[in-house]
Write a structure and sequence with these properties.
This is RND family efflux transporter MFP subunit. 26% of the residues lie in helices and 37% in strands. The protein is an alpha+beta fold and 349 residues long. Among the domains are: 81 residues, Efflux pump adaptor protein, beta barrel domain (Elongation Factor Tu (Ef-tu), domain 3, Beta Barrel); 64 residues, RNA polymerase II/Efflux pump adaptor protein, barrel-sandwich hybrid domain (OB fold (Dihydrolipoamide Acetyltransferase, E2P), Beta Barrel), CATH 2.40.50.100; 74 residues, Helix Hairpins, CATH 1.10.287.470. The strands form 7 sheets. A 6-stranded antiparallel β-barrel has the order 4-13-16-15-14-17. Strands 3-18-23-22 form a 4-stranded antiparallel beta sheet, with no helix packed on it. The protein is elongated.
Length: 349
């Protein structure tokens, strides 16, 4: 038994020494499948866009208070002047009464001051008072008149505030969002809904920085092009996080039915000599909160390459990246990779 234990110990030491003699064998690698990058020869770039209204106006009260009534819901159509929300008017009505009382008092004081001016004008004509004394009487009348004007202005403000207790639609359209609820206390200017005004819709597109700003394009429907597009505006600067430019395109076909908020495919015309578009398998695209990327094998290790994703279908993705034509990218299992991981491509020695 003792002899057997010594033999086993010697065998274990021999295996351990053998392993330490070849350190490279201790590192494992992951098998991956690669696919070549292909260049797309096309005169348009396919992107996704969102159908938006030309004017999407936040709706809010001009005065604060407690919402007494809500008369609309999201998706509802409203006409210009239609009441959407009502505030509790009691405090506003009291403010009108106070302003009216102030105006009545000021007008009574003005009437007294005017009568005093007339009486003193007769006394001045008879030389019973001096010019200086009469000027003081006139000054008192002017001050009373100014107080009347100020009181009348405050009454008008209070009356306007009471009118503002009824929130009306400024234009005809469809309510995209409605957030105000009865009983909610709101401040002046607090958004309660978003009203999409009537009119031709627009397509909002986020343009990759390297793509430029196409001036025209078309909406892509299954197997056909429908609805020409024309650039209306583009953001003055790229988004600091996504590095994309927000652009709005007019839909030139007034009869084309588009639902607000729906996502559509668009084909934007590229200028001659424009950016090069690449196509990779959809499995090659990897997104980890820092933008889209693909993976290449560099000296036997995985290396991430950032790309700008344009659009994708069930099998392929269209991208823009600093990759040569024919370069190979990892096509499957990219979610399991990390920078510097040892990998080996299938079907390679």
């Amino acid at each position: 038994m003792r002899h057997l234990s010594l033999c086993l110990l010697a065998l274990s030491l021999t295996v351990a020494c053998g392993r330490s003699a070849d350190p490279s064998s201790a590192e494992t690698f992951r098998w991956v499948r690669v696919a070549p990058v292909s260049v797309i020869e096309r005169d348009s770039a396919g992107l996704s866009g969102t159908v938006r209204a030309r004017f999407e106006t936040p709706v809010a009260f001009q005065v604060g208070g407690r919402i007494a009534e809500r008369r609309v819901d999201a998706g509802q159509r409203v006409e210009a002047g239609e009441v959407m929300f009502e505030l509790d008017p009691r405090d506003l009505e009291q403010a009108v009464r106070v302003a009216q009382a102030d105006l009545d008092t000021a007008e009574a004081e003005l009437a007294t001051a005017a009568a005093e001016t007339r009486r003193n004008r007769d006394l001045l004509a008879r030389e019973f008072i001096s010019n200086q004394a009469f000027e003081q009487v006139e000054l008192a009348e002017r001050a009373s008149r100014e107080r009347v004007d100020a009181a009348r202005a405050r009454l008008e403000q209070a009356s306007n505030a009471l009118d503002y207790a009824s929130l009306r639609a400024g234009q005809a359209g469809v309510l995209i969002e409605v957030s105000g609820e009865p009983g909610q206390v709101v401040a002046a200017g607090q958004e309660l809904a978003v009203l999409a005004g009537d009119g031709p819709p627009e397509i909002e597109v986020f343009l990759p920085e390297a793509l430029g700003v196409p001036a025209s394009g078309r909406i892509v429907r299954p197997e056909l092009l429908a609805g020409d597009l024309e650039l209306r505006e583009v953001a003055g600067a790229a988004d600091p996080l996504t590095r994309t430019w927000t652009a709005r395109y007019r839909v030139l076909d007034p009869d084309l039915e588009l639902r607000l908020g729906s996502v559509v495919r668009v084909a934007l015309d590229l200028a001659e000599g424009g950016p090069r578009l690449l196509q990779v398998p959809i499995g090659a695209i990897n997104e980890r909160g820092q933008g889209a990327q693909v993976w290449q094998i560099v000296e036997g290790r995985a290396h991430a390459v950032p790309v700008e994703l344009l659009d994708l279908d069930q099998e392929h993705a269209r991208i823009m990246a600093e990759l040569p034509e024919g370069a190979e990218v990892i096509a499957l299992g990219t979610h399991l990779l990390h920078e510097g991981m040892a990998v080996r491509a299938l079907d390679r020695p």
